[in-house]
């Protein structure tokens, strides 16, 4: 067991794993800084890709990219592995634990038996840290949990090699070198510029604020296009991706707003603080959308909205986010 490992709970798994791994190596970065420097906030709607016959919706960048971008910008060298053999994957994990190295890894939520049953479903991009073994069980730091826990060899294998999209394939990662000095302000501005650029300037209608607007337009017509039952299933998935996968769309906005607040203090730029306030309001608007969408899914007759009205709410969120990140891009260009 790695006795000097410190676990801290976070809102989102990848941010929390990065923060906890780096703390072990003597670097203190809280969740908003990891998320902001790693340019984690994003939006994409990919109707041509289906998971369980439901179009893919994401409110963040794809798994693994937050740590990659963050480590590149701070100057951390990270070792990454994936495996075709379960035995080799577990042997390599044991080797790193014997060396006293906590290991981050990608897992399926469904096979993590320490989670409450209501939270276990087939989602294959959940990040955890394994930091030791005791009595044949692996010690786990799961950032969404208040305390550390443990898991059996068999369940950890299932979680690391679950089938579906994306396949975890036993992926594991850990820092091997950390810098003595780094340019924090430069990393902050680089992260801000990439996020604002990707939210407003990718010439593709399915991503960024344009993607949110496009989904709003499609959402209005789901009942007539695919029928009421399927429309409810698709809307329920939008809510799940927004509110239950990691922190979800609104939660990611609150984390990024906290990052802009910290960035404002560190760089002395008042505009970043003003934009953080606006983004918090955008997160509130997304939460309102999720509330009314949930009432539609539960068939609540009073205080509800139509699909057209839900589309209007989401389009207003898209408008707000485009304005916020367009202004943020202008602020970052000169830095």
From TrEMBL:
Q: Per its UniProt record, what InterPro entries does this chain match?
A: BtrH_N, DUF4872
All residue ranges annotated as the DUF4872 domain in the record: 154-328
Domain of life, per UniProt, equals: Bacteria
Locate the Butirosin biosynthesis protein H N-terminal domain: which residues? 12-143
Q: What is this protein called?
A: BtrH N-terminal domain-containing protein
What organism does the record attribute this protein to? Chryseolinea lacunae
């Amino acid at each position: 067991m790695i006795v000097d490992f410190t676990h801290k709970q976070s809102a989102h798994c990848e941010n929390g794993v990065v923060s906890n791994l780096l703390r072990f190596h003597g670097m203190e970065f809280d969740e908003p800084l990891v998320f902001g420097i790693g340019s984690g906030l994003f939006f994409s709607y990919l109707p041509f890709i289906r998971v369980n016959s439901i179009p893919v919706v994401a409110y963040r960048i794809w798994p693994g990219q937050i740590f990659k971008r963050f480590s590149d910008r701070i100057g951390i060298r990270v070792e990454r592995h994936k495996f075709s053999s379960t035995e080799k994957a577990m042997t390599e994990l044991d080797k790193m634990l014997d060396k006293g190295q906590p290991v981050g890894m990608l897992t399926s939520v469904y096979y993590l038996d320490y989670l409450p049953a209501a939270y276990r479903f087939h989602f294959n991009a959940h990040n955890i840290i394994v930091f030791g073994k005791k009595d044949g069980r692996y010690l786990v730091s799961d950032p969404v949990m208040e305390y550390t826990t443990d898991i059996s060899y068999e369940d950890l294998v299932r979680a690391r090699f679950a089938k579906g999209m994306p396949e975890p394939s036993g992926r594991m990662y850990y820092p091997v070198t950390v810098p003595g000095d780094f340019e924090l302000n430069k990393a902050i501005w680089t992260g801000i510029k990439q996020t604002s650029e990707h939210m407003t300037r990718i010439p593709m209608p399915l991503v960024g604020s344009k993607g949110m607007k496009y989904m709003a337009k499609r959402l209005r017509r789901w009942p007539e296009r695919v029928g009421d039952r399927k429309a409810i299933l698709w809307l329920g998935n939008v809510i799940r991706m927004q509110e239950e996968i990691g922190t979800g769309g609104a939660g990611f906005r609150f984390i990024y707003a906290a990052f802009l607040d910290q960035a404002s203090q560190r760089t002395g730029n008042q505009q970043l603080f003003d934009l953080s306030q606006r983004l918090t309001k955008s997160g509130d608007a997304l939460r309102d959308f999720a509330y009314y969408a949930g009432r539609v899914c539960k068939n609540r007759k009073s205080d509800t909205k139509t699909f057209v009205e839900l589309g209007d709410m989401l389009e207003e969120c898209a408008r707000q986010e485009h304005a916020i990140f367009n202004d943020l891009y202008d602020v970052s260009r000169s830095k």
